[in-house]
Amino acid sequence: MREFPEVTVIIPVYNMASTLSVAFESLFSLENLPIEIVVVNDGSTDDTQNVIDRFEKKAVNLKWVSFKSITISNSGRAEALNEGVKLSRGEYLSFLDADDSIDSSNFKKNLECARNANSEMAIGQFKIVGEGGGISIIRKLSKGMTTEQIIRKIAYSPISPVHLNAILIKKSLFLHAGGFDASNKKAEDKDLLIRLLRQARNITICDSFHYIYKKYNLSRKEKVKKRLEWMTYRQLMIRKNFSGFRYVTSSSLQYSYDLLKLLYECTFMYDLILKLKNRLRPDAFIK
Description:
Blueprint: E1 7-13, H1 17-28, E2 35-41, H2 48-59, E3 65-71, H3 77-87, E4 92-95, E5 101-102, H4 104-117, E6 121-129, E7 135-139, H5 147-156, E8 167-170, H6 171-177, H7 188-199, E9 203-214, H8 220-241, H9 244-266, H10 268-280
Parallel strand pairs: 1-2, 1-4, 2-3, 6-9
Antiparallel strand pairs: 4-8, 5-9, 6-7, 6-8
Helix pairs in contact: 1-2, 5-7, 6-7, 7-8, 8-9
């Protein structure tokens, strides 16, 4: 393995022992692509550390993998990611959540796309899969979109046009943008994404669908709790990043979208439809 890997993949993990193996296996399938894996155990209390130790031993036999892990006191996802970046040596950074995975061939395509354009940000596409593994949604950005158009979509759209974890980011750009805001517990990705888009000089939109985001069926109570958290932190993100007309419009639209989703999720119809979808199509989910 070369002294400095081209890509560092950072995995923050808190009590995700049941899903972490899939994330690791997807990275280990990147044969002959020198990568560095940095795992940050955010104070887990389950079997997470044992899973990390097991895969760290496996990595010793993989010449293309450099594996590091640290444990910190529970500080939240943003702080765990920032700690991971401090340990990283790669030119590019990639983030992977402990319950998601990557498609190895498409990951390589995204890196090739970044290399060819010498991009500071190589924006890949992403797939959303249900619990059964079937593809539920494919999210794709047009290659001709400008930075301003992407930011407008983040500000005004009810759905996310970009997933931060589907982007290869030059470490120098990440550091210049200031890293993750640890005070924002739920919208830290969007907050950083906006700052990266505004500061990057060379952005490329790639065709690779390398990030596989897994969506879980949640109970009505769990869904409502998450929605209320999202409403709060999304508004903090909007207030921080936008001003004037864009702030007022984005704040109003996103609050309205969240409120409509919350009203739906509070009704008995949410549980009813979830049960029907699970019966008819186990991999389906309610967005």
